[in-house]
Design brief:
Chain lengths: 170, 987
C-alpha cells in the first residue's frame, strides 16, 4: 500500500443534502471536520470522536454513519444527508422533528441531530418500527440530559404520525 | 405518571419550548459553531502522562519549526503573565492552571501549541520533548494522610490542605446516653456527569487596552469571573467573559472550563491572534473536572425505637491534585443538611480536605449530595435491620415533623416548607408500594434475587454564596468580612413598538429557561407567550450580572424565574398607572389580558398593550407625574434568609429545600450479576411546578445519570495513578437499554421564600438514587458493605464471594497488576549465527541497534552503558512516538547483561528490567532473555488488551532483525528483554 502523506489534498466530490459539493480535503480529514469546519454545516455535532456517542451521525447513501469514524475522502461520489436536510421547508418541522418538540425529546439538543438521523433512516425503511426496534437503534446514542424516555416517546409519536399521513394519502 | 396540575394562565403548563425549533433543524449555536475572526488559530494542550513527576526539561524547538505553528507555551510562560489561582482556604500553596516544575495528575496541562489548524497543532504537539523524573504517587484519600505519604505540595507540609471540626448541640452526651450506636464506613467513588458537548473557549487579547475577551461555554457561578480576572492580572472590566447562545449540557461540569479560559487567554496574548480551543473527549474524561470521591465514617446514636439522637461525621474529601475554586465547596454545600430529612438535634463533624494525584474536582450535579446521602441512607437501612424494625418505620420516626416548618436543622439550614410524612405516604400509596412487596415475595419464591431499596432526602437549591466560608474558622471569617446571599437578576425591556424582551444571567445548558421566562413574563403582562423574547446569553461587559449568576445549585426556577416575576410586577404596575390615565380609571382597576390593558369593571374600555408600552419611548412627557418609564427594568434579588455563617458555624447553606422519597425494586441475574431495575418510584416536593414537562425532564435526566453512577460509571485510576477510563467505551454512560422510565410523583409545598413558590429540582435524583439502588442490592444479597459502582463483577463478589486465584497459575501471562499498570513478563531464547562476542558487540552498538530495533529513528550512545532512542511504534490503531532510555548493568562480557529502561511518549510510558544471556552452541549463539515490564498512560488505559500481543510481535521482530543482521539464524520464543525496555516504553 502506498504511504499517504498526511497533508496531501484530494478532490472529493459528493452530494450534501441534495447539492453537489466539491472540495479539496487532506487524506486525514474526518468527515465530521469536513462538514463542520470546511463546509460550515454545523448541525452535525461531535461528542467523542471515537465512535461511541453517536452525536455525529449522518446518512451516507441512506445508511446512518458516524462522521467521526470515516474520512472525508471516503465519501467521494456518495450522497450525504445531515440534520439540515430533514426540514421540508424553513418554517416547517418534519413529523419526526415535530414529535421531538411535542414530547420534549431534547434538552440541550447536542445529541439530537445524530439521533434524528438514525431515526430518520430507520423510519424511512421501517415506517412501522416497533418500540423494541426503536430502542435498539437508539442504543447507539448517548444522551446525558433526557434519560431517553421522552426520546422513545417522540419516536413512537412520529411513527404514529407517519401512519396517519400514509393513511390519509392512500 | 405525568403531573396534572390545573392552572389558569401560562405558568404551570407544559408549553412547547421556544428553544427547540432551532436545535431540531441543526441551527443551534454552540461554541464550536460560532463565527470567528479569520486569523483565529487553534490551541491544543500537551498533557502529562504521569500522575506525579518532576519536569526535568521541556524542549519545544522541534514543535516551533513546524509550518503553521504560531506559539508553543509552557507553564513558565503562562506564569510570567498570570498569577496563581485564588485558593478557597488559607493555605501556603500555589495553584496554577498548567504545570510548572511538577506534574501532579495524569492529564495535567504541560504545554500549549497554537497553530493554524488543530491538525497542525497536534502534529507539533507530538514533537515536544519532555523529560520527567517520576515521583511516588498518592491515590487514596486515607493513604494521603499517612505520615509516609508522598507530598504533592511540599509547601503545605502535608496532603491535608484544610481541616475543621464542628459541634452542634451536645453530641458527646447523646452518644454517651444512647442505647445503641451504629456506624458505617463508605468510600464514595469518583464520577462525573460528562456532558456530550466538551469544553470550548475562544479568546482574544487587545494589547491596546490590555484587555481580554473570552467566550467560553462556562456555566457559572460568575464568582469565578473574579478568579479569572485576578489570575490574568487585569481588573474585571478588562476581562470580558461571554457565553454562547447554546451549550450542550453541563451539569456543573462546565464550571471547570475557566482554567482553559485563562490558558487560551494567555495563548491569544502570546501568539498575537484570537485562539480557539475545543477539548476532545479523551481530554474531557481524563482531566476536565470530576466530582469528589470521599471516605466517610458515619456514626449514629440511636434509641431503642430507632430514633436517632446524634450523628458523628468524619469525612475525608479528595479534591485531586489542586484545590481549585470553588472547592472545597463540594464538602460544604450540604453543611446545613447533614441530618438529611431527619430531625436530629446533635451533630459532630470532622472535615478534612486532602490532595491526591488525580484530576482536580469541581461542580457536578448533586454537588456533595450523593456523598452525604449514600452513608446516611445506608445507615438508616442498617439501623432498621439491626434493631429488627421495619425500614420505613425507622425513616418515619426520624423525619422532620410536619408541623415544624420552617425548621432549623442542627447545622443551620432553614427548611422552608414541606410535609415529609404526607409526601412519603402519598408515594407509597400512589407508587403501589404494597404491590412491590408482593413482587419481591413472588420473585424470591421463584428463587430469584430481588431486593427493595428506600431513600429519603432533602434536596437543597439556590446556594448561599457564603456557605463556602464555613470552611474558614469564625476568626478567619471575621477578618475576611461576611459573605452571604445570592443575587439573581432579570431585566425586562420594552422596545418602541411595544415588544418585550427578557434578559437574565442564568446561562442555561438545555434547561429551557427561555421558555419558562416567557411564560412567567407573558402571563404577568397579559400578552401572548410568543410575544416575549428571552435572551439568556451572558456578556459580562454589557449585561447585568453578579457573582451568583449562572446555572448551578438548581437556582433557576426558585431564584431567576422569581426575579423575572418581580421585574414584571414593577413594569406592570407602571404600565397600569400609565394606562389608568388613558382609560380614565384608577390604576388599581386596570387589568392585563390577551395583549390588551383594560378596566376590570368595564372590559370594553381598553387599549392595546403595545401602545401603552411604547409610551415611554414616543411620549415620555405623557407619563403620569411620579411614574417612571417602562423602557427597561432590572431587578436584583437576594433572599434575606441566606445569612452568613453564625459565630457557632450554623449555616443556611441553601434557600430552598425540596423533599424526595424514592423506592425501587431490583432483580439481580444470579448467573451474570447483571442488575435490572424492575421498578423505580420517585416522589418530589419541589414547591410550585412552573413547567411540568421540564420538571419531569430534570427528574428523568438526573435519574439516568444516577443510574450510571450506581451501576457503571467510575473515573478509575491505577495505583500508579494512570487513568483507566479514558474513552466512552471505558467510562460507561447508560444508554436507552439500561435506563428504565421511573414513576414520577409530586407533592406540592410552595416555598414561602421564593417569589413564585418554586424550589429547585434538577439534582435530587443524583443524591437519592445511587443509595436507593444500593439499598435494594443490599436487600437482595444480604450484603452489608456495598461499594459503587455496582458493576456485574462487584455484584458477583457479593453473590459468590471473591474469586479465588487459579490453582495452576499460567506462566508468561500478561495481566493488569493491582497498580493499574499493564504488567508484561516473559522469557524466551533465539539462536543467532554468530559468535558470542559478535552478538555482544552488536547489542552494544548504536548503529546496529538502530537497524534492528523496530521503529527506531535515532539511537544515541550517551555513555558506554547508557543509550537513548526515539522509537515509533503502533499498537493496533494507536501509533505513537516514544523516547527510550536504556541502561546496562551487571555486565559480564560476553555472557550476560542486565538492561533497565524506561520510555515515554504522548501515548504512554513504561519501564522494565531484562536480563540477556549469551550461550555458545555449535558456533552459534543462543540468546536467552527474560523481562518484566510495566506500561502505563493512555495506551495502557485505551489499548491494554492489544498490548500483550503487540509486545510479543515487537520482540520477535527484534530477534529476527538481530539474526538477519548477524547473517542468518532463527528466533524462537518470543520476547527480548532489552526490547522490552523499549517496548515497555512504547506501548
Ligand atoms: S462524535 Fe462520532 S460517535 Fe461520538
Ligand atoms: S439533549 Fe442534551 S445530550 Fe441529549
Amino acid at each position: 500500500m502506498p504511504q499517504l502523506a498526511a497533508d496531501t489534498k484530494h478532490r472529493v466530490a459528493f452530494h450534501l443534502n441534495g447539492r453537489k459539493v466539491e472540495v479539496l480535503a487532506e487524506n486525514r480529514m474526518l468527515l465530521s471536520d469536513l462538514l463542520r469546519h470546511e463546509l460550515g454545516a454545523t448541525g452535525t455535532h461531535v461528542g467523542c470522536e471515537h465512535g461511541v456517542c453517536g452525536a455525529c451521525t449522518v446518512q451516507v447513501d441512506g445508511a446512518p454513519v458516524r462522521a467521526c469514524l470515516i474520512l472525508a475522502a471516503q465519501i467521494d461520489g456518495a450522497d450525504v444527508r445531515t440534520v439540515e436536510a430533514l426540514t421540508p421547508t424553513a418554517q416547517q418541522l418534519s413529523p419526526l422533528q415535530a414529535a421531538f418538540r411535542e414530547k420534549h425529546g431534547l434538552q440541550c439538543g447536542f445529541c439530537t441531530p445524530g439521533i434524528l438521523m438514525t431515526l430518520d433512516a430507520l423510519l424511512t425503511t421501517r415506517p412501522d418500527a416497533s418500540e423494541q426496534e426503536i430502542r435498539e437503534h437508539l442504543s447507539g446514542h448517548l444522551c446525558r440530559c433526557t434519560g431517553y424516555a421522552t426520546i422513545v416517546a417522540a419516536a413512537l409519536a412520529a411513527v404514529e404520525e407517519i401512519r396517519k399521513e400514509q393513511k390519509y394519502n392512500a | 405518571m405525568t403531573i396534572n396540575l390545573q392552572r389558569a394562565g401560562l405558568v404551570g403548563r407544559s408549553m412547547p419550548r421556544v428553544e427547540d425549533a432551532a436545535l431540531l433543524i441543526g441551527r443551534g449555536r454552540y461554541i464550536d459553531d460560532l463565527p470567528t475572526r479569520r486569523d483565529t488559530a487553534h490551541m491544543v494542550v500537551l498533557r502529562s502522562p504521569h500522575a506525579h513527576a518532576e519536569i526535568r526539561s521541556i524542549d519545544v524547538s522541534k514543535a516551533l519549526e513546524v509550518e503553521g505553528v504560531h506559539a508553543v507555551i509552557t507553564g513558565d510562560d503562562v506564569a510570567a503573565l498570570t498569577r496563581s489561582l485564588t485558593v478557597g482556604v488559607k493555605a501556603d500553596v500555589e495553584c496554577w492552571p498548567i504545570a510548572r516544575d511538577r506534574v501532579r495528575y495524569v492529564g495535567e496541562p504541560v504545554a500549549l501549541v497554537v497553530a493554524d489548524t488543530r491538525y497542525i497543532a497536534e502534529d507539533a504537539l507530538d514533537l515536544i520533548a519532555v523529560e520527567y523524573d517520576m515521583l511516588p504517587v498518592v491515590m487514596d484519600p486515607e493513604a494521603a494522610l499517612q505520615e509516609d505519604a508522598a507530598l504533592l505540595h511540599p509547601s503545605l507540609g502535608s496532603n491535608c490542605i484544610a481541616e475543621r471540626s464542628f459541634r452542634y448541640g451536645d453530641p458527646e452526651s447523646a452518644f454517651a446516653e444512647a442505647k445503641h450506636r451504629f456506624a458505617i464506613d463508605v468510600s464514595y467513588p469518583r464520577n462525573s456527569c460528562t456532558p456530550i458537548e466538551t469544553y470550548g473557549v475562544i479568546a482574544e487579547y487587545d494589547p491596546g487596552e490590555d484587555a481580554y475577551d473570552v467566550t467560553a461555554n462556562f456555566q457559572g457561578p460568575f464568582s469565578i469571573h473574579a478568579v479569572v480576572a485576578l489570575a490574568l492580572k487585569v481588573p474585571g472590566n478588562r476581562m470580558r467573559l461571554r457565553t454562547p447562545p447554546d451549550s450542550g449540557g453541563s451539569f456543573g461540569v462546565k464550571q471547570g472550563v475557566f482554567v482553559y479560559a485563562i490558558l487560551a487567554a494567555v495563548a491569544a496574548r502570546v501568539s498575537g491572534r484570537p485562539v480557539k480551543w475545543i477539548e476532545d473527549r479523551l481530554e474531557h474524561l481524563m482531566a476536565s473536572v470530576s466530582a469528589t470521591n470521599r471516605a466517610t465514617r458515619l456514626e449514629a446514636a440511636v434509641e431503642a425505637d430507632g430514633r436517632i439522637t446524634a450523628l458523628r461525621w468524619d469525612q475525608i474529601e479528595d479534591c485531586g491534585a489542586h484545590l481549585r475554586a470553588p472547592e472545597p465547596a463540594t464538602l460544604y454545600r450540604m453543611h446545613g443538611n447533614m441530618t438529611g430529612a431527619y430531625a436530629i438535634a446533635n451533630v459532630a463533624i470532622r472535615n478534612r480536605v486532602v490532595l491526591t494525584n488525580k484530576t482536580p474536582t469541581g461542580l457536578n450535579r448533586g454537588f456533595g449530595g450523593p456523598q452525604i446521602y449514600y452513608p446516611l441512607e445506608r445507615l438508616m437501612h442498617r439501623i432498621a435491620d439491626e434493631l429488627g424494625i421495619d425500614r420505613l418505620e425507622v425513616i418515619r420516626r426520624n423525619l422532620v415533623p410536619s408541623d415544624a416548618f420552617p425548621y432549623r436543622t442542627a447545622t443551620g439550614a432553614l427548611l422552608d416548607s414541606g410535609d415529609y410524612a404526607a409526601a412519603l405516604d402519598t408515594a407509597l400509596a400512589n407508587g403501589n408500594f404494597d404491590e412491590l412487596i408482593e413482587r419481591r415475595r413472588q420473585a424470591r419464591a421463584a428463587g430469584k434475587l430481588y431486593g427493595i431499596g428506600l431513600a429519603a432526602a432533602v434536596e437543597p437549591s439556590v446556594s448561599n454564596m457564603g456557605y463556602i466560608t464555613t470552611a474558614l474558622t469564625p476568626e478567619q471569617r471575621a477578618k475576611a468580612g461576611p459573605k452571604n446571599g445570592a443575587q439573581a437578576v432579570a431585566t425586562i425591556s420594552i422596545d418602541p413598538l411595544g415588544a418585550v424582551t427578557v434578559k437574565v444571567a442564568s446561562v442555561p445548558q438545555g434547561q429551557g429557561h427561555r421558555t419558562v421566562l416567557a411564560q412567567v413574563v407573558a402571563e404577568r403582562l397579559g400578552i401572548p407567550f410568543k410575544a416575549v423574547r428571552v435572551n439568556t446569553e451572558l456578556d459580562t461587559a454589557r449585561d447585568a450580572w453578579s457573582i451568583a449568576s449562572g446555572n448551578y445549585s438548581s437556582r433557576f426556577a426558585a431564584a431567576v424565574a422569581g426575579t423575572a416575576r418581580l421585574a414584571a410586577d414593577r413594569i406592570r404596575d407602571r404600565l397600569a398607572e400609565i394606562a389608568a390615565g388613558q382609560l380614565n380609571v384608577e390604576a388599581s382597576q386596570v387589568d392585563f389580558l390577551d395583549g390588551r390593558i383594560f378596566d376590570r369593571l368595564n372590559p370594553d374600555n381598553s387599549i392595546s398593550f403595545n401602545r401603552v408600552a411604547a409610551t415611554s419611548h414616543w411620549a415620555p412627557g405623557m407619563l403620569p407625574e411620579g411614574t417612571d418609564h417602562t423602557i427597561q427594568e432590572t431587578v436584583f434579588w437576594t433572599p434575606e434568609q441566606l445569612e452568613a455563617p453564625t459565630s457557632k458555624d450554623g449555616i443556611n447553606s441553601s434557600l430552598c429545600h425540596g423533599f424526595i422519597f424514592d423506592f425501587c425494586g431490583i432483580e439481580i441475574d444470579p448467573a451474570t450479576g447483571a442488575v435490572r431495575i424492575d421498578k423505580y418510584v420517585t416522589m418530589h416536593d419541589c414547591g410550585r411546578v412552573l413547567h411540568p414537562a421540564m420538571v419531569e425532564g430534570q427528574v428523568r435526566g438526573a435519574f439516568a445519570q444516577a443510574v450510571g453512577a450506581a451501576l457503571f460509571e467510575e473515573y478509575a485510576y491505577g495505583q500508579d495513578g494512570s487513568f483507566l477510563s479514558g474513552t466512552l467505551a471505558d467510562y460507561l454512560i447508560p444508554t436507552v437499554m439500561e435506563v428504565p422510565d421511573p414513576v414520577i410523583l409530586h407533592y406540592e409545598s410552595p416555598s414561602p421564600f421564593t417569589p413564585l413558590g418554586a424550589k429547585g429540582v434538577g439534582e435530587g435524583n443524583c443524591m437519592s438514587t445511587p443509595v436507593c439502588i444500593a439499598n435494594a442490592i443490599a436487600d437482595a444479597t444480604g450484603a452489608i458493605d456495598i461499594t459503587l459502582p455496582l458493576s456485574p463483577g462487584r455484584i458477583g463478589d457479593l453473590i459468590f464471594g471473591e474469586e479465588k486465584p487459579s490453582s495452576q497459575p499460567q506462566t508468561r501471562t500478561p495481566n493488569k497488576s493491582s497498580s493499574g499498570q499493564r504488567q508484561l513478563t516473559g522469557q524466551g531464547s533465539a539462536t543467532v549465527s554468530a559468535s558470542r562476542q559478535t552478538v555482544w558487540d552488536m547489542l552494544l552498538d548504536p548503529a546496529t541497534l538502530e537497524a534492528i530495533i523496530p521503529g527506531a529513528h535515532g539511537v544515541e550512545r550517551v555513555s558506554a552503558t547508557h543509550f537513548r532512542a526515539d522509537v515509533t511504534l503502533g499498537v493496533g490503531p494507536v501509533k505513537g512516538r516514544y523516547r527510550a532510555e536504556i541502561k546496562l548493568s551487571d555486565m559480564v562480557e560476553p555472557e550476560a547483561v542486565t538492561l533497565s529502561g524506561s520510555t515515554q511518549g504522548a501515548l504512554g510510558f513504561g519501564n522494565g528490567v531484562g536480563r540477556i544471556t549469551l550461550r555458545e552452541a555449535d558456533g552459534k549463539t543462543i540468546v536467552g532473555y527474560s523481562y518484566e515490564a510495566g506500561i502505563g498512560g493512555k495506551v495502557a488505559s485505551v489499548g491494554g488488551r492489544l498490548l500483550d500481543g503487540a509486545a510479543r510481535v515487537v520482540i520477535g521482530q527484534f530477534f529476527q532483525a538481530l539474526a538477519r543482521h548477524a547473517g542468518g539464524g532463527t528466533p524462537h520464543g518470543g520476547l527480548l528483554s532489552r526490547l522490552k525496555a523499549l517496548l515497555g516504553g512504547r506501548s
